[in-house]
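Dear support,

I submitted the protein below through the web form. The confirmation email said the job was done, but the results page showed an empty box. After a refresh the structure appeared. I'm attaching both so you can tell me whether what I see now is the final result or a partial one.
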Amino acid sequence: MILILAITIGCLFAGGFYLILRRSLVKLILGLILLSHGVNLLIFTMGDGVRRGAPPIVDKNGVAPINVADPVVQALILTAIVISFGLTAFILTLAYRANQVTGSDDLDSMQGEG
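What the results page shows now:
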């Protein structure tokens, strides 16, 4: 399972970097989205790996169960999802405004525009 996730993460990063290096604004946005998904999967696999566990809830004595899921990884992934959503919304707004001003999504035609 970890090997499949590692190959998927590698493909997401490779596809994201490939799309970022293209000269279209739409491909740049899609590349950033692919990179953010790759980062989310990377954080997921860097935790305890892929395993099932009990909820991280302690009992009355303050003792946690033996096989608990790591809540830090879940919190980091949620934070990364919110940040990537905000970044995507900002980039989409910026791309829409740049398309209104220049009339094109080609990054070469946007150089020198003011």
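Response: this is the final, complete result; the empty box was a page-load delay. The chain has a mean pLDDT of 86.
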